[in-house]
Structure formats: C-alpha cells, structure tokens
Design brief:
5-stranded mixed β-sheet, 342 residues, 13 helices, single chain, globular, alpha/beta, two-stranded antiparallel ribbon
Length: 342
Amino acid sequence: MKDTMIGVDLAKNVFQVHGALRTGEVQFRKKLTRKQFPVFMAQQEPCTVILEACCGAHYWARQMEALGHEVKLIAPQYTRPFVKRQKNDAADAEAIVIAARQPEMRFVAPKTVEQQSRAAVFRGRERLVHQRTADVNALRALLHEHGHVFPIGTRYLDRMRALVEDEASDLPALIREECQDMLVQIAEKTARITERTTKLKVLAARSDRARRLQTMPGVGPLTAVAVEAFGPDMAAFKTGRDFAAWLGLVPRQHSSGGKERLGRMTKAGQADIRRLLIVGAMSRLNWLGQRTITEGSWLSRMLARKPKMLVAIALANKMARQIWAMLTKNEDYKDPALAGAT
C-alpha cells in the first residue's frame, strides 16, 4: 500500500474517498460517514493521504498522521483543472489524487494545534476591530444626519461622546439614547480588543522565534504572532523571494514573447502577514521613522523618486526576505541602524 494514494473530499458528515496507485490504477471508491472514515483509514496500511486545504483539513491531517499515514494538503484551486466533466464528490476526490501525482505540484503544510490556537486569538481580535469600526462609522453617520460632522477614526470618539453627553446639545432625546447605547457597545469591544492584544503580546513574549522577529524594525508582537500562526516552516521556501511571493508582495506578471510586463502587487498569498508587514513598513516611513534612514541608502533613494505607498510595499517585500533569512539561520536582525542600507 506504500504506492497507494488516497484522495479525500472532506465534508461535514459524508466523506468521499478515492484510492489509486501512483500509476493511476484505481483501487477503490468509497463514500464514508464521519464516524466510518477514521475506522476505515486505521485499517489501511501506511500510504499517502491527500486532502484539500479546507475547513477541518488540518485536524484530519493530524489524525491521519497519528495513524501512520503521510499527509499532503493541496490548495482547492489546484484540483479544479483535474475535475472530469460534472462536478460531484467522487469526481473531486479523484481530481485530488490526479493533482497530487503531478511532480511540480505545490502543497500546503499542515498546521499544528498551537498554530491554529494562536490564529484563532489573532482572528478574534481582527473580528472585534472590524465590528468596532462598523459601530463607530454608524455613530458618525447618525450624528451626521443631525448636523454634526466628525472626521473618520476612533481618535475622535471622545469628541462624539462629549456631544452625546452634553444636555445642551440639539440632539433629540431618542437619538441621544441610541448614541449612548452605541458608545457602550464600542467601549465593550475596545475592552475586549485590549484583552486580546495583551494575550497576543504574552504569546509573543513566550516564543523565541517571535522574540527574534521583533528585533527587526517595523515588526511588533502582532506581526510576530501572525508569522508563527499563519506562516509555514521557512524550510519550505528555497529563497526569501519565494516567501515574499507566497505573501503576494511581488508584481503580477503579464509577460509574453520575451517581453517582461509587471503590474500591481499580486495579493495572492497570506493576507494577514502581508497587511501587517506593509503597516510596519509604513511606520518606518513616517516623519519619525524617516529620521533613522541612512542618507544615500536604498530606502532613501527610493523615497526620493517613488510614492511612499509604493516604497512601503517594496520595503515590506524586503522585510519578508529578511524574515526568511532570520528564521532559516536562527539569527536576530543584525543591525537595525542600517536597515535601509543596500
């Protein structure tokens, strides 16, 4: 069975299983319930199990590895071209095996329980931030409807609160009550965001890899935890440029006939890490961060001839490559004072 590949189309209750040899000869096709699936897989000799990287895939990958199987996760978009005619569970499971047989196929590294736990805390904080932003915008819109205009941003929340609490203001009583209720909801979300931020900082302080990442200018606890939670083992990338491309921090190509055409950033990778790296890069380009940029350095020359946002993306790309080097070599960021040097 070592030459057998088993493709599994995961679902909530019914799993479709397709077994075939590496030569393509079909061994079995089965439809199993959620309870039957682990029992069936425990009866199989150690083989290669391929799952689509979807909801529950990382959990089942750990379960299959515990049974002695070699597990590979494949991105769903890479299996679609191999689906024959009509789409159904059996065709999807077969396509997973066919796609995995391709020698140039790229796979997704299974996540550990710790990685998924950190990702849950991180995403929980992001969800609360989005909800608070929506509440603040709703409050601004409501006040705007009654003749009071405030700039965008949570920094002006105190001014809005002062208006709502001012009994002498011209706000109707019902509107004031509604605004006060929204302010209470915003305060509750702010407290929960602060709680999760503190938790993420504690997680970053406990990890040696996160501590190492924070030696780089522009990388804080949230970015360090995001790299640990969402990033695969850096050994999976041959070079730092591969990691930057995985994050979507490289230009989109439309090259043909030997003529190179580069477009905007691909945004084809992990969005959380990419966004935080760009935010960190922007912090190094503000009025305070620019004081640390060495005159005549790569960063200084870029700022002199390119828009700041474009420079931030280029710097984020460079930071991604430096992160790859730091983690593969197990070294701290060597000289932050020369971060912008060539």
